[in-house]
Structures are given as structure tokens and as C-alpha cells.
Amino acid sequence: MSSSPQHRNRSSVLEALRQAASTHACHRALLLLLRAVKFLLAAFLLLCLADILLHFGPGTRSGLSLTLLGTLFLLLLTAFLIALCARPAAQAMAGILEKRHRAFGSKLTNLLELHDQATDSRLSPLTRELAQQAVTDATRDLDTAEIRAQARAPFLKREAKRALLVTAFFLLLPLLLGEAGRRQFLRFLHPHGDHPPLSFTWLEISKPNHDGLEVVYGESTRIEVKAKGHLPEELFLRVQPRDGSRRPREIPLSTRGDGLYLAVLEDVQAPLVLTAHTPNERSLSKQRHLAVLLNPRIEDAQVTITPPAYTGLPAREQPFRFTTLQALQGSTLTFAVQSNRPLGTGELTLTTSEGASDSQELKPLPGGKTSTAVATLTVRESGRFHFALRDEEGRPAEDTAHSSLTVSEDLPPSLSFSQPQEDSFVVENHELLIEVAASDDYGLRTLRLLPAVDDQPLAALSEDFSGVGPRREQFRRTIQLNQLGARPGQVITFFAEAIDNCPDPHLTRTEMRRLEVISEEQYQQFLRRQADVAQIAGAYEQLLDQLHSQLREQERLAEKLEKLAQREAQGELSEAEKKEWNQLQEAQEALNEQLRETARGMEEMAGQTPVYDFEENLHQHLREMAQAITQSAAQNDQDNAAARDARDSAQAAREQLARLGQEQQQGEEAIREPLADLAALHELIKDVNEFKALYEEQKTLAEQTARFENQPELSPADRLSLQEMAGRQREVATRLQDLQEKLRRHAGAAEEDFPKASQSARELADAIGHHNLPPLGRESSQSMLSGKGSQSHAQASDLQQKMESLMSSCSQCQGQGQSELDHYLSLSLDSPPGQNFQQMMDSLCFNPGSQGSSGMGQGGSFATGIMPGQQMGLLGGRSLLLGPIGRTLAGQAGTRGNFGQSGQPLARVESNRAESEQEASSRETQTPESQATLQEYENLTEAYFRALTRTPNPTEP
Q1: For residues 276 and 238, what is the distance between their CA atoms, to the nearest angstrom?
Q2: Superfamily grouping for domain 199-293
Q3: Where is the composition biased (Polar residues) (predicted)?
């Protein structure tokens, strides 16, 4: 073949046609693909719309997605085949180019025909040459670049733009449609993924709000589902294990009314997949994955504490919170630890304070898989527990549990005397009650009382307890002093011992208690010194007041029975009236029993040793009254038993009322009235005694201030001494002021029966005022406070001399009182004079005026039960009561000592207790001598008593 320029030009044209054919085929394939894009995307959107309506399953969505992918693959294959195999021939390509570009005319077709003729060997050479020349001429006018340019598809750019716009719009749709659009696209892009379909109800599991939340094994968790759009009436939660080992469960959700639905998953033991859905499953939520924490955790613990057998205490089971645990030494502790997982063998270790350790296995309970492990150990020392848990697969617990142990020891018994509470005097022939209060934390084995008389041991009194023994015990023993052989002047000593039931026993011993025995005569002398007639009268008054109250009750019953008798006379009684009659008879029986109790009280009172001689006559009256009351009650019982109707009962009640009224009147005349008169006289006697006591105190003050008489300047010690005396001097002045008022008041009370003694008392009161004794005492006290030594002595001596000038008046008053008392006793009580006046003179129970009540000693103290010079109580004796007589002489009711009630007890001189629940003692529990030591200028009466009982000291000024 020639390589001339004409030949090369012709070849380039043909090559351009071949390239144009290739370009045309490629562009045809590209147009096919570009035009298929919108259809494929439209098909995808149609599938999404169909899925919204029909909710295709994962398989259907997978098939449809594969179909689309297959269609796309076929399109791509078709386009490839078109581009590769569907190239048009040169003649066809020339026709296509001539149609697209009219400037070509038919040149390309003619050129190809001439080229065929020039190469056709069947034609003549000339023809072929001419054709060749024609081809050469034709190619000279053709532009090969234009041929190639016209081969491009004319609508390729437009289709590309359309495809690009459609694709961009398709890609923007998920962004425009939000989560719903993205989820719908993903349903086909990822058919088997967690992409719920669109519906009118939007469901979302809001709690837990993310996947992978760890739940402790065996615990519960709360699930919350939020619904938007159309709120369904019912929702369900599908719960399925992540590994598919079990079938899914459907749990109904409860609604809260605001689009929130709740459910509780209990006992979560495996990782779960959660899905919320409506009953028809048209609406689904995204799945939520729960993880499970498999390490064991202590959920609960119990401890059983079994005390040692000797305590007798039962084993007790209690919750164990891993706080400090207390147990008795030798106790057995059994721990039961409960976990959320099936447990394997763990370990319990007790480390003592000294570093020693004791380890026990925490073994699971028998019977297969169990979440409870048990360990048992006996404790003897305090320490610290360490609990190490492992599950059945060997996983250790998340946290290590610790706890402290405090081991307590068995303490010795506690032992003390309840009675007597302190060392005391005891009256001979008294029935002595000894009471010991013993207690032990776990039980007593033996209690012993070991007495002795004058250090001579007597047989022990003991009580043994079998078994565990009581934890608290009141050991009481009543001892007759005559059985012990104790006589006045001897000392009874005793102490108690207690032994507990511990295997290693503990013993506790009380202190020694001492009781000195005194005679009845000593006691009476002491009581007369500390009491007065008003106090003695209180016990008599109480009995008379009881009888008076019972008389009023008898009167009330008689009136009611009389009314029933009148209604009975008018006709038969109704059932209600018969019931009332029976009730009245029962009330009468109860009243008769009260009367007999009062009679027994009178007999008991009459059997006591008299404090004053005139009480013998009073006791005789009490015996007679007791006998009459007892007989009256017995007679009334007989009459009531024989009563056939209300009239008989009314007659019996009237008769008893008359008998009791007569006894009451006799008691008032024979007992109360004489006691009131004698108490009034006794107040005068005590007032005179008080003046004498004040004189002795003033004399002492004058003697003690004598050393300051000639000292112009006092040392600090002298000033302090003088100031101390000022309080005592003021107390004397105050008592003199009160005494002046008491003398007048008591003289008025005793004037009717003892006019001469009363007149002497008034004269003494007038003399106290005439000589200005109280103002002189206050002036002397002020001088002492100011530290004026000589002036203090002069004033104290002046007051002492003026008081001494009145001592004759005191003697006159006492002499007249004695004669009038003897005369009164012979007339009113038919009693000989005896020693009554001297017995009254013994009383040092002074009334402190505004500071106390009648019959009181200093500060309201009474028969204290303390022997002179001793800090001891007194066991045995009689009760002292302040009744109406004492309150009348006191000048007012309700004064110090709670004397507003009749028969209020002042003291019961038979107990060493300061107060009892039934009778509150208002007496002081110290002797006058000891009180004066503690409070030297509080009570002048005690100062006088001290002056009478002290041993003279020749060195004392």
C-alpha cells in the first residue's frame, strides 16, 4: 500500500469514522445509564412508599433491594455490551454523522462508496483508479476533528445534569425527612438491621437511653418507652436473649398518660434485646441492648448468734448490715450471705486485734445451685471480719465486705441493799426486813446473807438457783430480833454475796451494814424529843376521819334504800329497781368490810406503846370503838342476809347509821377534842422551850464576841469569824419575831382550857415586844457584818441580859401550864397527872413560823429517826401524821410539807428510806447535831439541841 499524502489523508478519515463509531456506542451506553438513574431512584422511592404502607419484612425488603441491584447490574452490563459490541458500521456511522451535521452532506457516504469501488478487485483498473482519485479529492475537504466531535451524543450533558440533580435530590431526602427518612432508606439499604418501619406512632425506648447498659445479675431494671404521634392504648415490650437461647417474652407496658409507658424487667440474668411494639406490630421501636454484670454481689446477710449454753438464752437471728457486731465471749456465729449469683466456695476470715486470724469456708447450701453461702465460727476475742465471695465460675465479688466484732465478757453480779439502805438504829423486838437487790447479765447461781451479832457470826441465809438462774432477784428475809438474841446495846452486822452462773464464776459482795439495837424506852424518849402532840394526834384523826367518811357513805346508802322501800310500799319493784337493790346490798357489804378495816386500824393503834401517858385513856376508847364498829358491821351483815325486801334492808341501814353515828360522836368527844386541847397547850410549852433555846444561843453569841470587845481593829480572820456569827444573830432575831406572833396565836387557841398559861404566854410576847428584842438582834447582826467588834459584843450582851430577865416569865408560864394540865386531865380524860407535862417539855420540835408548819422542827423536820450524835436512821416505831389539829395550830393550810390533805403523812419512823411511794417523809435524815455542823446558823432549834447534848469543853470560851 502506498504511503503517499493522499493515502494518509484517506486513512485518517476512515480512522475518524471508526473512532466516531466507538464514541457513539459509548455515549449510547452512558445515556442509557443516565436515563435509568431517575427510574431506579423512583423505583427505590416507590418501594419505600410501599414499605410504609405494607411494612415489608426483612426478607421481602432484601429481595426487593436485590432486585433493584440486579436491575442496576443488567443496565450496567447492557451499557457495557453496547459500548463494546454495538458500534455502528462505517456506512451507518456516516449516515448518523450526516444527519447530525448537514455540512457533511453526503460526502461521508460517497467517500465510503468510492473507497469500496477503489478496493473492489472485480472492477477494471481504470474504474478503481478514478474511484481512488475521487476518494482523495473528497478527503481533502473533510475535517477529521469535526467528524470525531459530531460523534458525541447531543443530549449527553443534559441527561447528565438531570441524573445529577435527581441523585442530589435523592441524597438530600434523608436530610430533609429527618430520622424517619433515614430510617426508611436504611430499611432497604440494610434490610436486616434495626430499622423500624414508619407509622403514625413513633416509639422510642428512652430508658435505658443507650445500648450496653450493665444490669447487676438478678436485679430488676425499669424500662421507659416514649410514644409520639398517635398514642396507642396498649404497648408491649418484646424481651429476647441476645444469644437466642430462649423464646422472646412479651411484657405489657403500663401507661402514665403523657405518652410514657413503663415496665419493670425482673431477675435479669442474661444480655437482652428489647423492642417496644403495638399489638399489631405496625409500630416498632429501635432495639435496645442490655448487658449483665456477672460478678457476684452481696444482697443480704443474716447472722445467727447462739450464746453459750449456761446463759439459757435462745439463739437469735438478725439481719447483718456489716456494721459492728457484738457477741458474748464463747458465742457461736453463723453467717448466711446471700448473693445475686449462684455461689461457689468463698472464705470468711476473722482477724483479732493481736493479729491472729481464723478462716472458715463460706460454703454454698447443699442442693445444687444456690445463691446463699454459710460459715460458722466460735468467737472469743474482738476482731474484724473479711468476707470473700466467689460465684460458681470462680468470679470474685465486686467489693470486699468487712465488719467489726466486739466480744463482751460476762460481768460480775450487781448487788445492793434495798432495805435497810444505810446503817441504822433498830428498836428491840422489831421485825427486821432485809432486802437485797441482785442482778446479773446472764443469771444468778447463789445468793447469801451472812449476819452476825457483836461480831459473832450466825448461820448464813442462802438461796441457790438451779438451771440458768434468774437475771434479777429480790432476796428478802424477815428476821425477828429476839430470835437472833440481839439485846439493846448490841450491834447486828450483815453483808450479802452473789455468785453468777458463769463456768468461771464471779462473786460480788456488798458493804457491811450495821444496826444498833435500842430499847423501846429509848425510842419513846427520842420520839418525844422530836415529835409533839399535834403529830401524835394525826394518826388518831386519820382513823376518826375514816370513820366519818364511812358514816357519810352509810347515810347515802340508807337514803337510797329508803327511797326503794317507799316505791316498794307503792307496788312491786321493777327489774331495774331490783337490780339497784342488789347493787346497794353489794355496796353495803363493801362498806362493812371497810368498817372492819378501820376497826383493825384502831386496834393496831391501841396496841402501840404510848408516847404520852394520857394516850392510855385514848387507847382504851379506841378499843371500845373498834369492838363496837366490828359488832355493828357483823349485825348489819346478818340483817342484810335475812332481808326479804328493800324495806328490811333500809331498816338495817338506818340502824347501822345510828350505831355508827353514836360511835363517831363518842370518838370526837373522847379523842379528837382532848387531843386538840392538849396540842394547843403543847404549842405554848414548845414556844417557851424555844425561847429558852434562843436564850442559850444568844448567850453563846455573847460569849464568843467577848474576845472582840477591846480590839479597835480586827484582823481578816476575826472579821470573817464575826461575819459568820452575824447570820446566827439574825436568825435569833427572826425567831424572836416569829415567836412573839406564835405566843399570841397559841395563847388564843389554848385560852379556853388553859387561861393562866395563855395569859403568861401573852405577857411573855408583850415583854419581847416591850424590850425590842428582835430589833436589838438585827442591830447586833448588822454590827457583826460591818466588822465592829466591841459594838457587836455590847449589843449581843445587851440582848442576852434582856432575854435573861424574861426567864422568870417562862418558868411562871410552865408552872401554870403544868397545874392546868393536871386539872384538865383529871376532868376530861379521868387520867392521873403522870409524867405528861415533863414528857411534853421534852419536845424540841419547834415551829419555825413562816418557814414551816405546826409541829415542825427546824425547816419542817420531824421525828427524824436519828439518835443524838449519830448519822443513822431508825427502824421500827410509829407513823406521824399532820391532821386538821396540826394545820389549825399552824395558822394556815397547805403550808410547807404538802399539808393540804387530812392525814398527810409527815414521817414514818420505821424505815430508813428518805421517802416511800405511799408516805412521803418530810422529816430530815440527819441529827440536830450534824445539821448544826453543816449549817451552823440555819436552825437555832438544833443549836439548842446541840447545846444540850454536847460534851463541855473547858477550853471553849
Answers
A1: 6
A2: Immunoglobulins (2.60.40.10)
A3: 779-803
